Amino acid sequence: MDREPATVLDAPQHDAPRDTVVHYRLFARFAAHPALRHLLPGSGLWLDAEGLRVRLGPWVVTTALSNLAGATVAGPFHAARALGARLSLADHGLTLGTSTARGVCIRFHRAVPGLDPFGLVCHPALTVTVAEPDLVARAINQIAR
Predict the structure, then answer these.
(1) CA distance 138 to 115
(2) Which residues pair with 119 in a beta bridge?
(3) What is the domain partition of the chain in residue ranges?
(4) 106 near 127, Cβ under 8 Å?
(5) Residues 50, 5: Cα–Cα separation, whole Å
(6) Could you give the angle at the alpha carbon of 92 between the alpha carbons of 95 and 118, nearest 5°?
(7) What was the pLDDT predicted at 119?
(8) How far is it, in rounded angstroms, from Cα 93 to Cα 115?
(9) Running along the chain, 145 residues long, what does each successive block of 10 average in pLDDT?
(10) Confidence at residue 113, expressed as pLDDT on a 0 to 100 scale
(11) Is beta strand 59-63 parallel, antiparallel or unpaired with respect to 68-74?
């Protein structure tokens, strides 16, 4: 399994105003075998001052930082529940998955659209199988505080 780390794109902004919440921009790839990466162009998780953006193929989830309620690391997952785009019938959570190993479950204050192209179904949480779920969860929890 590919364990390429998430990337911190900017150094800390020490001269940033006191109310600035995000001091780094974070990009995390989806965990996938290197031979499958060509199937995921443009996919990943971005976290910066503009908010959270997650893309896996045609599925995109975006939300403001103020909507992040927290995150937990979960897994391993059963393949039938972890690969591709999946809707949980129990809680309407969305999974965007490329691996059965581990992922991060991101909770929102207000449910967000993501699965259907019209935004009719909204999700209170999003599970993504990124390469560094611990790092992503730690960053989101810091912002949510």
Answers:
(1) 25
(2) none
(3) 7-144
(4) yes
(5) 22
(6) 85
(7) 87
(8) 10
(9) 48 43 80 75 92 94 97 91 86 92 96 92 96 96 93
(10) 96
(11) unpaired
The set of residues, in sequence order, having a beta carbon less than 8 Å from that of 33 and lying 6+ positions away, is: 1, 2
Count of beta carbons in the 10 Å neighbourhood of residue 123: 21
Distances (CA, A) of 86 to 40, 95, 126, 136: 17, 5, 10, 20
Q: In this structure, what token pair is assigned to residue 1?
A: 């399994």
Residue whose pair of structure tokens reads 């897994």 in the numeric block = 75
Q: What are phi and psi of 31, to 5 degrees?
A: -70, 125
The pLDDT value recorded for residue 21 is: 52
| Per-residue tokens: 104 | 């991060």
Question: Hey, what's the torsion of the CAs at 28, 123, 107, 30, to 10 degrees?
Answer: -20
